[in-house]
protein acetyllysine N-acetyltransferase
Amino acid sequence: MGEREREPRDNGIRRVAQWLRKARRAVALTGAGMSTESGIPDFRSQGGLWAQVDPREVATVEALETNYPRVREFYRKRIDEIKKHRPHLGHEILARWEKAGRLQAVATQNIDGFHQMAGNRAVHELHGSLRRFYCLDCGRPATEAEFLGGEPCPHCRGRLRPGVVMFGELLPMDAWNAAETAMRAADLVLVIGTSLEVYPVNQLPALSQGKRVLINLEPTDQQALFDEVLIGRAGEVLAAIDR
Ligand code: BV8
């Protein structure tokens, strides 16, 4: 980054650090860009997951019904991939902020569990989790080993699926309600590493009456919503705010 671009960003970082110090009910909303510095690709960037795989074939309710083996294989590989990586400094900073009472909650679209692994307790997983599994047919829970082993449901011999939210499915009510409540009460919202293209999570930042900050590698379509846009890598920008 050149000197001329760095200067306004440094001012922005100072402003956000000040808002964070004053905030009583700060909330973070994270997306796939939060985990790219851990080595996990996002979805919609060049080289993202959806550039390689058509989401309609692997991440929709229709695909689960008509193309179950392909969906199972897609998520089996994602589980393998996630296990190779760890949370990074940015995750750790958010966990520290929660512990210090500076951050109330993290609402996340990520299914990798990295926020919890880094130490955050109040995490609302809006698109579910790749650490939970259940039966597509009877709804009862299953284990990762059963899913990975390609076994049928131990209760009804049905098909097992990961506990993630596919396109066309409703979000988990408890996570959604908690995130919505936190957003409405928030005096500072840090939106980190998300294109804000996916409904209904992309409606959440507008619910807050407080300061809204976007930390992302590139601008999104919702620029006008934000009081500050910090263009950069999540881990680096969070570290700069933390300094
Ligand atoms: C729902 C599965 C009600 C989990 C995912 C037309 C037809 C059908 C449906 C719709 C339609 N129009 C709208 C809809 C609704 C649909 C939707 O929004 N579609 C969009 C895409 C048009 N939404 C739904 O279906 C939702 N449910 O609406 O229920 C309903 C019910 C019945 C019928 C209709 C509606 C459910 C959505 C769940 C989607 N699940 N995948 C998985 O496998 O992970 S999608 C996927 O997108 C992931 O879950 C992901 O979490 C989510 C959001 O993506 P992002 O996290 O934002 O990632 P993205 O790559 O886009 O952006 C990353 C950003 O980070 C980039 O800007 C990049 O520059 C930046 N970045 C990268 N690295 C860094 C960085 N920034 C900072 N630092 C870095 N280091």
